[in-house]
Amino acid sequence: MALVVVHYLVLCLIPISVNSIKNSHMCNRTETYLEPVIRSHSYTTKVKYETRCFLLFKCTKYRDVVRIGYRQVPELRQRVITECCPGYGLSYSVCEPVCAMGCFRGHCIEPDTCSCYPGWQGKKCDEKCSPGYYGLNCIDECSCKNGASCSPVTGECNCTDGWKGSSCDIPCANDTYGHYCENKCMCQNGAKCNNSDGSCVCSPGYTGETCNETCPAGYWGLNCSRNCSCKNGAACDPINGNCNCTAGWRGKLCDIPCSKGFYGDECSQRCECMNKAQCNHNNGSCICEDGYTGIKCEEACSSDTWGKNCAESCDCKNGAKCLPDTGYCDCPSGWKGHNCEIQCENGTYGYFCSKKCNCQNNAICDKAEGCICTDGFTGITCNDTCSNGTWGVNCTKECKCENGAKCNPFNGSCICPKGWQGDRCHIPCETGFYGQDCTEKCDCQNDSSCNATNGSCNCSEGFFGEKCDRVCLSGTWGYNCSNRCDCQNGIDCSPTTGICDCKPGWRGTRCEIPCENGTYGYKCQEMCECKNGATCDSSSGCVCSPGYVGKICNETCSSGSWGINCSQICNCKNNASCDVFTGNCTCLPGWKGIDCGVPCNSGTFGENCTKNCLCEHDSFCNSMDGACQCTSGYFGKICDQECPKGLWGVDCINRCECQNNGYCSPFNGSCFCSPGFTGEHCESKCQPGFFGNNCAIKCHCESECFCHHITGKCNCNSKIETLNCTTNDTNCGQQICSCPISAYNQSHEKCMCNYIDEPETDHPFTLSKILLATLLLTLIITAAVVFILTFLLPFLLYFKKNKSNITIKSSNFVGYNLPENEKEYKLFGSKYVKRELSINNKETISKATFENPEVPLHQRSKDEIPEFNVSSLESGVKSIPQLSSDDNFDAKDENIFNTKF
What family is this (predicted)? Predict the structure, then answer.
């Protein structure tokens, strides 16, 4: 079978060109297939018939009959199939070439080869002719001149205004202009007419299409050709070009915005925005920072709101504070989590549980506060003693020590500093003594006094030092070096004479005279040469205007800085340029915002994101130039076209692999199979027993029938006979087959009934006849059983007993009466001796019970007679039990047992 399948596949894959077929794109292939045919076969079946029984009745019997039957079997066939050659598809009964990529502006002439319509080119005919070319395949060169455009289809020239002729090489005559010189000039006031567009060159002060109007806003001078330099919407005087600034601007050209904090006409109004809000320099409106709202941004967000204009809601728990600008929950100590809903684990505490408890000195860790110290200790880990001035639990008790004395953190006792004594350290040292507990003696020189605290000396005039053995330092002089030089402007003086040594920018005996204008430096010897509006500082030289640097302020700020001394750092993002004077950012296409840090919103692009994207089907739009990057399954400039049939994926570059007319998704290339097929590429038929979409429907055909993989129709290989057929049976040919009704086709097929000569039988009994015959048969059988038991069985037993050669011993017994009060005992009879005939009997002898009602006997002689003990008999009853043998005894055995009462 495997060889047949391989042979079938090879034949299917090798198309054979057939010249005899009229269409040259038709090919033949040989196909091997299975065809169901009807074949006869012999089989044995049981046939029911009736016969006489019990003289009066009819009985039903069966016999085996060999019959000829028919069944459907698959046979291997071959046939020639004519179909379109590879690369061609059937269209209106004609094999047409197929271009898998599609021909958008053309038609397919050969497999995957398009013939484009005039004006189109490219492999898919989806590209217009390049400028300057036209016609089929865009190979003809246009002859148009003077900027005329050329029709890509016919090559016809479309002249620009002011020209005419087939090649647009003839200029318009006087007083005419426009397209093919069809319009007449309408200029007034001596204006000259342009033969291209009919525009008039007006006299100074005039404008308009026919020079009948004065200059429009923004222009002035001859022919209104001079542009006003006014910016930001300022009006321009048409005569002299002076600017009249709009609200929010100032300067000669109205190009300088109002200073920070001012707005309106001539920047005369002061902004009232609060909380660092930005003020619109045009109308004074406030742009609030996150976390504030109100006309003047004077209101902070409520505790449960945050964000821009306080529009977002907070969800903080456990007393957490919601930050109004970010919405983050500022958890109290001891809590963490996005909403501060999680308590700190053991061993951690503080803000967001970020700290670990390392408590010392027997301190306890609190999840909110951290370590709770014992008496006398403090600090994060309770490893520090109380600071000076406190003692006790949590260092909450105040010491009574004075004069900076240290306090014992455990009991509050005072440790006096040098120079003091007493229980509170409130008594100073006596004269001539200093130090701890006032035990140290002073050592000052030159009649200087001693400091009781540290023993330092209070020096006499002109001296200083630890022992007052050094003269005053430079800049000071006099008693205890307490006098300072009289120099001005921060100038130091000689410690002995007080003469001043002036700093750059000053001169005079006390350095009180500044440098003259245009001079600076030491003794005012340097000359200022400042540029670009810089001022001269008498000390350091040129102080540059914002945007300039250098010794003489002749250099602009480098990239990334602006303002005075270029000290301000530009905040412009995404390669935006920064104005060196104002710090304003000029954004690149695709960005917006004050700092150019905000990307264009989805669906917009270009400078300041003012242009709308045209991309369709959720395609990505480049925020810089608006170019579309199509999603999977679409193509085109604006991604408005679905992939042609047979292609899928991004830019439709993937070829579909679906077989057997399976539908290919243009988005992911997945195959949706036709009914009857399955597999990743719909390459496999349904498994036997299944059919339909996704092979999900289970067939309901019997074992000798098979199911079609597409329709589910049952095709039976054989027919099962259910009724007898005779020469007189006229219904045989109309009997219904036993193949079940298919869940799909809802139809039956008829059996093929075959006649073989058999005895003709009567029709079956009716129900009443059957019941009567059954009753009569039961009565006859009952009478026969009664006759056998009444007459025949006793006779046989008697005859058997007389013929038996076994000697039955008499039972030796002693009869006696039982007490009358002992009753309700039963004695069951034993078994008869087995001789020649097999007869068993069991009967009740007396209402008494054997201790051993039955004892097996094995190879005993006649003389070995076992005895039975009887516990009791019914009062006044005497009986001899019968002898018996077991049914398994052989006929020759003489095993006997005796019973004794």
Answer: Belongs to the MEGF family.
Exposure on the CB side of residue 602, measured as CA atoms within 13 A: 4
* pTM for the model: 0.27
From CA 33, how far away is CA 244, in angstroms rounded? 95
CA 67, 72, 77, 81 dihedral sign is positive
Q: What angle do CA 750, 753, 756 make, to 5 degrees?
A: 180
Identify any residues that bridge with 862 across adjacent strands, giving them in sequence order. Answer: none
Nearest to 856 by CA among 812, 828, 889, 899: 889
The DSSP result for 323-364, as a single string, is PTTT--EEPPTTEESTTS-EEPPTTEESGGG-EE----TT-E
Q: Are strands 611-612 and 604-605 parallel, antiparallel or unpaired?
A: antiparallel
Q: Which amino acid is at 567?
A: S
How many other C-beta atoms can be found within 10 angstroms of the C-beta atom of residue 186? 15
CB 561 within 8 A of CB 581: no
- pLDDT of the residue at 613: 92
On the question of pLDDT at 540 being above 50, the answer is yes
Rounded distance between C-alpha atoms, residue 98 and residue 96, angstroms: 6
The answer to whether 114 touches 107, Cβ cutoff 8 Å, is yes
CB atoms closer than 10 angstroms to residue 520: 22
Q: Which residue did the predictor score with more confidence, 243 or 749?
A: 243
Question: Which burial class, exposed, middle or buried, applies to 354 when counting CB atoms under 10 A from its CB (0-12, 13-18, 19+)?
Answer: exposed
Out of 122-136, 272-286, 849-863, pick the least confident. Answer: 849-863
Separation between Cα atoms, residue 65 and residue 511, nearest integer Å = 149
Gap between the Cα atoms of 577 and 571, Å rounded: 10
Q: Are 636 and 649 in contact (CB under 8 A)?
A: no
User: Do 849 and 827 contact (CB within 8 A), yes or no?
Assistant: yes
Find out whether 170 and 164 touch, Cβ atoms under 8 Å.
yes
Spatial separation of the C-alpha atoms in residues 458 and 469, rounded to whole Å: 11
Sole residue written with tokens 């059957």: 770
Which residues lie below 8 Å from residue 743, measured CB to CB, with a gap of 6+? 697, 699, 700, 712
Average pLDDT over residues 187-203: 78
In sequence order, the β-bridge partners of residue 673 are none
For 476, counting Cβ atoms within 10 Å of its Cβ (0-12 exposed, 13-18 middle, 19+ buried), the class is: middle
Q: Which of 358-362, 492-496, 884-888 has the highest mean pLDDT?
A: 358-362
pLDDT tens-digit readout, 390-423 = 888 888 888 888 888 888 888 888 888 888 888 8
How far is residue 199's CA from residue 223's CA, in Å, rounded to a whole number? 12
The C-alpha angle with vertex 76 and arms to 73 and 81, in degrees rounded to 5, equals 130
Run of H or E residues at 236: strand 235-236
